[in-house]
Every structure is written in structure tokens, then in C-alpha cells.
Amino acid sequence: MDSINVMRGLLVQNWVTIRSAANVPTITQGADSWIDLGDVEDLVLFLDVREVSGGAKMVYQTSPTKQETSFVNMLPAFSIATGVRIDRVFADMAAVPAARFIRWQFSTVAADVTFRLWCATYAWVRTA
Amino acid sequence: MSGRTFLLEDWITIRSSLTNAFTQDPGRWLDLSGFSDVVIWIDVPEVTPPGGTNTNYVQLTLQTAPSPDDAYFGALAPSLNFSTASPYYQASVTPFILRSAQSLSVNNLMRFLRWQITPTGSGTWDLTFRIRVVANRSPTFVPPLIPGCVFWIRADLGITPVTSLNVTGWADQSGSNDPNKDLVSGVNPALVLADANYNNQPTVNFAGSAYMTTPSWATQLVQPNTWVIVGNPGRAGFLQVAIESNDKVSGQDISQTAGNDVQIFTSSGFVSSSTMPTPGVILAEFDGATSNIYVNSVTAPTAGTVGVGGTTGQASLTLGSSDIAWNPAGLNFWDGKFAEVIAYNAILTANQKGLLRSYLRGRYGMTIS
Fold first, then answer.
1. Do the chains contact at B137 and A124, CB–CB below 8 Å?
2. CA atoms within 13 A on the CB side of B27
3. Residues B327, B318 contacting (CB under 8 angstroms)
4. Domain B143-364 falls in which CATH fold?
5. Do A39 and B4 touch (CB under 8 A)?
6. Minimal Cα–Cα distance from A53 to chain B, Å?
7. How does DSSP classify residue A39?
8. Nearest to B184 by CA among B322, B317, B77, B313
9. Matching CATH topology for B4-136 and B143-364?
10. In chain B, what are the domain boundaries?
11. pTM, entire model
């Protein structure tokens, strides 16, 4: 089978400010906005953060189905800092490569973050 | 499901008092032609071990074969043993995730994929599960894909026994198929099934008293050579030896010093200026007068010398203690864990080291660059 690796840029989350209360430890991206990756195997995630407070953390999650209990972390949670953070999740190296759906989850209490999340995706496409 | 995501088995409960294996019906096996690797997502919300006895277990194995002939099927990944208490996996709302890997203890992905369940023990048992498969066209990276790999152990592969946390054997996966490189325990270390410090991958805990040795090391491993250790010493302020080889003249060793630095040694020593974090990676280049130590990719400030070592090849290797051939009771035990140990019979190029770091970063969630 001949195949080529095709890149496509996806906006996972447009500019948004998320502010959590003391009694809400996690806020997860809305299910309507989860990305269905289809044939995508490799990802590069670009998190652009313009403001953060309160020690907020972010994690990227994936699952083969839209079932809440199925989602697991693709990468360990990280502390959010201003600037652009780049994370790579490649199928040949990752402990948990991207499955069909991906989403973000914000965790902490009494914190806020203003961010945008882009994703460059790489899919193997059959050409013959 | 769609694309490269497949449902191998929807929710099902298998309940029986028989002790024979149950194999998935051939009509449901997956034909994965065109894919190189799979990631298996297994949901197990309930298990009853045979007779309700928590020392019994139900084993779930993913099997693969190049043809539908039953005789060709072999394990794709290490089996999961389910019961209601340690050392077995227990029912969970979080999926269990398995990856295929090119190694000696499991088969590469072949064309067909199926599940098999085998109870161990007598009495009625059941297992409720669902299995989803995410297939990839890019093959999984493993360290032997870099030329010159002469030794590779990883805590999810080649461990014996699989039904106990007491590790008595840890088989080399480098592909040399040399049983003289398979570690056997002097004092058993303990398997950690999912270590939170290592991205929930398994580790082996040597805990300051365990050690393992190779029966002998027939292969010549003269300098230059490279060793990679993924683990952590676990206790500050004490000399702790990760590996030491016995070549009858001057064996190689890698250790944490009492000053918490990393030292490599052959006929002379050379100390890094970086302490070992958790999780940590030591990459040690034994190359006569121009040796190097990288601790989580930070290079020792200047290259040092470790001497050239013996020329008779390494007769044996001790993991977790000073060389047992010289110190039969063990000495300077490693009071921590190992997730993986790799050795190459060459100095790796910058690109090869980068590839290895990408692999370790992905597998263990490390922040090495």
C-alpha cells in the first residue's frame, strides 16, 4: 500500500477564558467541541496562553469513543504558563497515542486562564 | 466504529465453572492488514475469580496470527491477570491500555487479532469486559531499532513470574536471543504494576536489598559502548550501584555517589555534576578518554575518562548492586526502581540519542529535551 502523511491544522479551542470556583476542581472541554481525529495518528499541540493565575494545570485526553470514563491522559498534566507551549504526541513513541477523540481538561481551584489551542494533525492517507 | 478505531468485542460477560480457555468466535476476529501497530483499550468493570478466591485469577490475552489457523496464534502483548486483590489487576472504571511492541516475549502484530480468556483455579468465575482497538500505520519505536543494541530490559516485558510481584527473572529483549543475558534474581525485587512517577508504566523496585544477575555475558562488550538507565536511586546521600559488570579485570559500573551525583567507572571514575531526578535517565558513554554522562539529557560539564576496561568481555552483569562475583552478599544496593535498561555496542549519534529521548519522553512522560 502506498501512503502519504498529510498535515491538517485544526482549531481545538478558540480564545476563551476559563475561571473556576473553589469547589470545582476540573473543567472539561464541552463534548460538542471534542475533535474527531479519524485517520490521524500524530499530533502537535500548540497551546497559546495570554493570562493565567492560581496555579492552573492542563491535560490533553483521548478516547476511542465519546464515553466519559474512557478518556485517559495522552501526556502528564502540566502547569500552565503564559506563552506558546508545544507538545508532540506521536503514535510510534507515546505511551497513549491519540485514539479517535481528543479534548482538553483544566484543573485547579480558584484559578483562571485565557488560552487558544491549535493542533497540527498528521494522517496516513492511502494513495493506491 | 470508524477509520482506524475498531470494536473487537462489545460489552460481554463470560461466566463459567469450566477451567478451559474461551476464545473469541472467528467471525469477530479483526483483519488488520495494512496496519503496523495497535493500541488496545480494555474495559473491565467486574471480575469474579474462580471460586471467588482472590488467589485465583482470570487471564485475558490478545492474540495475533498471520492466518486464521488456530495453531499460529500467539500473544500480542503481555497478558492481563484479573482478580480481586494484588498482585492481580482489579476491576476499574479506567481502561487498561496495552501496546504491541517488537520484542522477544510477545509477537509483532500480524494479520488477525482475537481475545482469549483462561481461568486459573476451580469454581465458578466471570469476567465482564469490552475491547476496543486503535490501529496505527506507523510502527511502535523500540530501542533495538537503533543499530548495535546488545541488551534491553523493560518492566512490562519478559518478567517472571507474571502471577506474583516477586520478580525472579527478567529476560533480555534485545533480539540477540542469548539466554546468558537474561537476569535472574539473587534477592527478588518487586514489580510495580503501574508507577505514577513513570506515567503509570510498570517499574521494578529494588528497595535497597534486591539484586539480579546474568548467568554470564558471552558477548564481547568492549569500549566504546553506551548504557541507558531509566530509574531512580530512591535515597539521597548513599552510594548506590545501578549496574556493574564483571570482566575479571575492571568492570564497568554506573552508580549514584554519596554526594548524589552520577558516576561511571571502569579502571577510573568520572562524576557528573547532576543529581538524578525521579523519573530519571542516565545515558553513559564509555569511550576511553572521552566518556560522557547525560542525566536527563544534561551533559556532564566536561568529558571524563573511565579507562579502557578489560578486553575479555563482560562475564556477568549485576543489576542493583556491586558486582556479585566480587561481593557475593551484595554491596551498595540500589534503593530505588528501574523501568528500563538499554545497552549499545557503540556511541550513539546525536540523532540516535534524540530518537531515544523522544521515546523515553513519550513513554514515561519525562521533560527531557
1. yes
2. 0
3. no
4. Jelly Rolls (2.60.120)
5. yes
6. 23
7. T
8. B317
9. yes
10. 4-136, 143-364
11. 0.88
Assess contact for B243 and B254: CB atoms under 8 A: yes
The whole-number pLDDT of residue B339 equals 97
| Cβ pair B136:A3 closer than 8 A | no
- The HSE-up count of residue B303 (CA atoms within 13 Å, CB side) is 9
Domain B4-136, architecture per CATH: Sandwich (2.60)
pLDDT tens profile B46-93: 999 999 999 999 999 999 999 999 999 999 988 999 999 988 999 999
Residues on chain A touching B4 (C-beta within 8 angstroms) = 39, 41
Q: Which residue, among A35, A62, A74, A92, would best test binding to B if mutated, counting the most B CBs under 10 Å from its CB? A: A92
Q: Tell me: pLDDT of B98 over 60.
A: yes
Contact B115, B63 (CB under 8 A): yes
State which residue of chain B sits closest to A93, comparing Cα positions: B359
Whole-angstrom CA distances from B275 to A66, B71, B259, B282, B320 are: 43, 51, 8, 10, 18
Please give, rounded to a whole number of angstroms, the shortest distance from the CA of B333 to a CA of chain A: 30
**ipTM of the predicted structure?**
0.85
Q: Which residue in this structure is represented by grid cell 496505527?
A: B136
Determine the 3-state secondary structure of B344 from DSSP. strand
Q: What are phi and psi of B95, to 5 degrees?
A: -65, 150
Check whether B2 has a pLDDT greater than 50: no
- Which residue in the set A64, A69, A92 is minimally distant from B138, CB to CB? A92
Instruction: Pull the grid cell for residue B205.
Output: 523496585
Could you tell me the pLDDT band of residue A117, with boundaries at 50, 70 and 90?
very high
